[in-house]
Amino acid sequence: MAEAIQKKLQSELEKYQQLQKDVSKSMSARQKLEAQLTENNIVKEELALLDSQNTVYKLIGPVLVKQDLDEAKATVSKRLEYINGEIQRYETLLKEMERKSEQHREVLSSLQQEYQRAQGQAVGKV
Amino acid sequence: MASLHDQMAATGKVKPSKDLSQGVERLKEEHKKVVKDCRSQIEHWKKVENDYESLQDRLRTLPDKLSYDIMVPFGPLAFMPGKLVHTNELTVLLGDNWFAKCSAKQADALVEHRKKHVNNTLDDLQKVMKNFQNRADFTDDLEKLTGDTGDFADIREEVINEEVVTKGKHRLAHKPNSKPKQEYLLKLEEEKEKNESEEERATGVLSEEELWARLDELERQEELQDKRYRLDSTDTNGEDTTSSSEEEKEADGGSDVQVNGHQKENGWVPSSITSQMNGTNGSHPEDDEEEEDCDEEAGNGLPTIYFSHTAEFKKVRINTGKNTTLKFSERKEQKVQAKRKKQSGKSNGHSPHESYKIKSPADIYRVFVDLVNGEPIPRKSILKSRSRENSVCSDTSESSTADFEERRAAFGRSWSHDDATHSDTSDGITEEESPTGTSPRTNGRFEAFTGTVIEKDPLPCSIPHLTIAPPALPTIPERKLEEVGPEAPQEPPKRMSKFKATRLHQK
């Protein structure tokens, strides 16, 4: 009895840990996205400061590719949109994961109690 | 975590505080960490800001010259002498791999823009740092507040004194079923024994037969005394007429007592029955008390007790409206103590003995005991009507009203006795009597009714009252008594208020 519960507990714990890992991963991803957002925002603002005389380059791999300013602006705003979308996605993902981890925690605590009881019983029997 | 839990459970009390202190410790640590982080970030951003400052300086001075001789970094180790040309042509990394070729002036604007951002970030960081510092301070304060133990101090109730310090004893509610203190009982008994030397040396409770025998004897004595007394002083209480009628009534009272004796044999009859049998007072089947009541009733409706100032220790004259004198046994007297108390002015030689027993109001309760199955039990309330309880003690309420009226009567209004009597016990009888009973005097004076009104169940005990003649016709009542007496019991008991009775009577 106690062993079965222990096994279950173990598996649950592993799941829980995995989940926690995922949570932290998406958290860091989100943070990265946040940073990118601010960066792109700055880029956008600075692009706005430039005028048509200025040439704008995009570093793609090892080379700088010349870009049109308006094109660059459009690209940046698109990128911003994308980043915002990503952030939203991660937000929901995080919420979901939070909920799941909560559930897991409950299961874990109940399992733990059961396990303890089982152990106590075993001791009592002995 | 589980292990921690176990530990806590195992060691119980001490742990939580430790845990708490640990928690506080950790919180402080976290706060410190956050503040530290903020500090380092601020440092970083400050540096960035400084960099931008210098960059701005450079940018502003760069286009001043067409070319600069500089040492060009050549890998990580070497520098090469070189020349910086195109001093007004810059490629700026905007971020996210975006580059822009711009003039120094534009670059300067860009730098300015970036500096704004940097300043914003710095401000934010400062705010965060401040916030966390405050929090840390607060936790520090909290810890100090809670003391060295780290326990909560704000809600700490330590009951040091289990016993509340009060003056004297706690006052306890009079418990209905608790027995009176044994000492008091003993005292009572002792008293009895002393006084009733000629009586059976009964222990606390006499057997019923004995009691009744004694009561009968006492009644006989009373009657005798009563007659004697009346010869002596007819007008103590009123006119001759009344007294004569009273005597008649006394005789009746005797019979009445017998009736009562009946009841007595019944012993502890449920109060409802007894009350029916026993007239106005709704008296109790028990003991002497009852007798007294009955006597009073028999005498008239004014159950007042007068105590004669004779040398005889045991004789208590109960002066009902008709000057009935009753001789009471010691027991009775004891029980009547309360009554006597009320009649403060008329207290007889027993008062010292009274005072001996009753020293404080609380002691009254000890005197007021119920006899249930021979066990003395304190009464719930001495103010309650006895009719509901089997009490040994005299009913204070009843008697008090009677006293009141008696006193009132004593103030020179002899007529009022009868009046009161009628009203007191008024039943169907009153109606009968009212036509005959009309007296000129009453018509003469209408007075506002001042007595206490007590509604009572009409009882057979009241029969003798019927016989009470109107004051003007002293002799008639005797006959009447004979006539009416037998009839009366068959009459359906009628309730009538004193008011009504008085009114009827005065018609």
From TrEMBL, chain A:
Keywords: Chaperone, Coiled coil
Alphabetical GO biological process terms: chaperone-mediated protein complex assembly; protein folding
GO MF term set: protein-folding chaperone binding; unfolded protein binding
Keyword Chaperone: yes
Entry keyword Protease: no
Coiled coil spans: 2-36, 80-121
Short name of one Pfam family: Prefoldin_2
GO cellular component, as recorded: cytoplasm; prefoldin complex
Family designation: Belongs to the prefoldin subunit beta family.
Summary of the function given for this chain in its UniProt record: Binds specifically to cytosolic chaperonin (c-CPN) and transfers target proteins to it. Binds to nascent polypeptide chain and promotes folding in an environment in which there are many competing pathways for nonnative proteins.
Subunit structure: Heterohexamer of two PFD-alpha type and four PFD-beta type subunits. Component of the PAQosome complex which is responsible for the biogenesis of several protein complexes and which consists of R2TP complex members RUVBL1, RUVBL2, RPAP3 and PIH1D1, URI complex members PFDN2, PFDN6, PDRG1, UXT and URI1 as well as ASDURF, POLR2E and DNAAF10/WDR92.
The protein's name: Prefoldin subunit 6
Gene source species: Carassius auratus (Goldfish)
UniProtKB/TrEMBL annotation, chain B:
Coiled coil feature spans: 181-208
Signal peptide start-end: none
Keywords assigned: Cell projection, Coiled coil, Cytoplasm, Mitochondrion, Nucleus, Phosphoprotein, Protein phosphatase inhibitor, Repressor, Transcription, Transcription regulation
Alphabetized InterPro entries for the sequence: Prefoldin, Prefoldin_subunit_alpha, RNA_pol_II_subunit5-mediator
UniProt feature, compositional bias: Acidic residues: 286-298
One GO location term (cellular component): mitochondrion
Residue stretches of biased makeup (Polar residues): 269-283, 390-402
Basic residues bias spans: 495-507
Function according to Swiss-Prot or TrEMBL: Plays a central role in maintaining S6K1 signaling and BAD phosphorylation under normal growth conditions thereby protecting cells from potential deleterious effects of sustained S6K1 signaling. The URI1-PPP1CC complex acts as a central component of a negative feedback mechanism that counteracts excessive S6K1 survival signaling to BAD in response to growth factors. Mediates inhibition of PPP1CC phosphatase activity in mitochondria. Coordinates the regulation of nutrient-sensitive gene expression availability in a mTOR-dependent manner.
Protein name: Protein phosphatase 1 regulatory subunit 19
Name of the gene this protein is made from: LOC113118255
